[in-house]
């Protein structure tokens, strides 16, 4: 059977049949991973050689029949696999030893929750490469320690020695999601840095964790009052650092998911009308200032009411979803929104109306040649479009021009796209 390329392949090395059974069950529930299992060091060595380029990470028991002293961890780390240790015995010295070697986490087997935690850590690792973290710390050894720990978690890490450098990094990398900052630093301390950042970035856009060796309880409270999301007292355990960082990253992810859901059309997944105007207007004004071309299109499905009347709204919804998918496939590099009903908006930066009309043609040809498969059977969909490149004061006004051209296309027989030069008319005929 061919491997599922959508799932990350992980190596699990565990000699207990009971634990293996639990892990197999949980992996099926998670659905994110494809697991290869080994019971011994020798089996793991063979799998590492055979699957060298395919493995994403490893979860390993610390004690195996042919590797009683953690040799399995040495193996997986040698193959540069992010490794989570699962062990039946909690030993602080062992934990410190293996964390020093570079394992991602050291988890004691304490029932189902421990195994779920290990898999959640793997899931977190798979997402972390998308997130940027800034470490602001004037002590080079401490900064190096934090950076190394977070790099093991696959985060993208940026560094600064003080507040002024941090502001420069944030200006160059505006999509940094989390910042860890020390309190006492030259040029600009942690409090000044946080105060300045909170004027433009709220805690749901940039999470901030304050750091200090000062154990005064008032200091942590002051950090929070100045705008930090969290506080961490140095020196700290790796687990505490990971927990605080991961919790704050997950907060950012939840807020982004909520904002994204609010900006999306519930049916098609495209941006909704409100988001289109909120997002497109600023971009539109910027393009105008730079004297770039901007073309907008209003697309409307032909005779859509007949589909709803004949087959019902559930079938109409299937047609709209398929149309949204087709728009994304053919024109996904542009800003697309469902304006309402069977109408869609496009903003196409950098091109004129004639080029936009040519780009619409493959979409028209595909819909004509490949009926949409619905629960009521195949349905052939056609559309009309108005396309305008005439720059106006606001994008809403340019869309109004495109809407007038759409009306002309409808009046002219439908199944055609009309540009604002009048002479360009392209149909599927």
Automatic annotation (TrEMBL):
Segments forming domain Response regulatory: 9-124, 132-249
Q: What is this protein called?
A: diguanylate cyclase
Q: What are the top taxonomic ranks of the organism?
A: Bacteria, Pseudomonadati, Pseudomonadota, Gammaproteobacteria, Alteromonadales
Q: Per the database record, which ranges form the GGDEF domain? A: 292-422
Organism expressing this protein natively = Ferrimonas pelagia
PTM annotation (4-aspartylphosphate): residues: 61, 182
NCBIfam families registered for this protein in UniProt? GGDEF
Q: What class of enzyme is it?
A: transferase
SMART domains this protein is in? GGDEF, REC
What InterPro entries has UniProt attached to this entry? CheY-like_superfamily (IPR011006), Diguanylate_Cyclase (IPR050469), GGDEF_dom (IPR000160), Nucleotide_cyclase (IPR029787), Rev_trsase/Diguanyl_cyclase (IPR043128), Sig_transdc_resp-reg_receiver (IPR001789)
One Pfam family matching this protein: Response_reg
Q: What PANTHER family does this protein's entry cite? A: DIGUANYLATE CYCLASE DGCM-RELATED, REGULATORY COMPONENTS OF SENSORY TRANSDUCTION SYSTEM
Q: Which SUPFAM superfamilies match?
A: CheY-like (SSF52172), Nucleotide cyclase (SSF55073)
- Give its E.C. classification number: 2.7.7.65
Q: Which domain of life is it from?
A: Bacteria
**Catalysis performed (reactions):** 2 GTP = 3',3'-c-di-GMP + 2 diphosphate
Per UniProt, which keywords does this protein have? Phosphoprotein
């Amino acid at each position: 059977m061919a491997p599922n390329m959508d799932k990350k392949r992980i190596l699990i090395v565990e000699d207990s049949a009971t634990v293996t059974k639990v892990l197999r069950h949980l992996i099926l529930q998670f659905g994110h991973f494809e697991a290869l299992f080994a019971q011994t060091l020798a089996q793991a060595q063979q799998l590492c050689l055979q699957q060298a380029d395919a493995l994403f990470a490893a979860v390993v028991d610390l004690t195996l029949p042919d590797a009683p002293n953690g040799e399995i961890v040495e193996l997986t780390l040698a193959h540069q696999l992010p490794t989570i240790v699962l062990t039946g015995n909690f030993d602080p010295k062992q934990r410190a030893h293996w964390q020093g070697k570079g394992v991602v986490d050291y988890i004691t087997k304490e029932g189902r929750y421990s195994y779920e935690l290990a898999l959640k850590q793997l899931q977190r690792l798979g997402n972390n490469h998308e997130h940027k973290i800034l470490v602001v710390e004037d002590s080079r050894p401490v900064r190096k320690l934090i950076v190394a720990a977070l790099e093991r978690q696959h985060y993208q890490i940026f560094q600064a020695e003080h507040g002024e450098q941090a502001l420069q990094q944030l200006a160059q990398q505006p999509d940094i999601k989390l910042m860890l900052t020390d309190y006492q630093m030259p040029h600009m301390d942690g409090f000044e840095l946080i105060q300045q950042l909170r004027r433009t970035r709220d805690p749901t856009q940039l999470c901030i964790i304050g750091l200090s060796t000062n154990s005064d309880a008032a200091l942590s409270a002051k950090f929070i009052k100045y705008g930090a999301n969290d506080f961490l007292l140095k020196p700290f355990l790796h687990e505490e650092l990971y927990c605080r960082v991961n919790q704050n990253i997950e907060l950012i992810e939840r807020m982004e998911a909520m904002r994204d859901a609010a900006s999306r059309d519930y049916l098609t997944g495209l941006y909704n009308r409100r988001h289109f105007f909120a997002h497109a207007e600023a971009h539109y004004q910027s393009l105008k200032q730079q004297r770039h071309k901007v073309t907008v299109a209003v697309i409307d499905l032909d005779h859509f009411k007949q589909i709803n009347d004949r087959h019902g709204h559930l079938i109409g919804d299937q047609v709209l979803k398929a149309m949204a998918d087709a728009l994304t496939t053919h024109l996904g590099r542009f800003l697309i929104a469902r304006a309402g009903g069977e109408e869609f908006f496009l903003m196409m930066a950098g091109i004129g109306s004639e080029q936009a009309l040519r780009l619409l043609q493959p979409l028209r040809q595909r819909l004509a040649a490949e009926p949409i498969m619905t629960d009521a059977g195949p349905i052939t969909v056609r559309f009309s479009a108005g396309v305008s490149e005439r720059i106006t004061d606001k994008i809403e006004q340019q869309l109004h021009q495109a809407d007038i051209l759409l009306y002309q296309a409808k009046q002219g027989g439908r199944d055609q796209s009309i540009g604002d030069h009048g002479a360009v008319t392209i149909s599927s005929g």
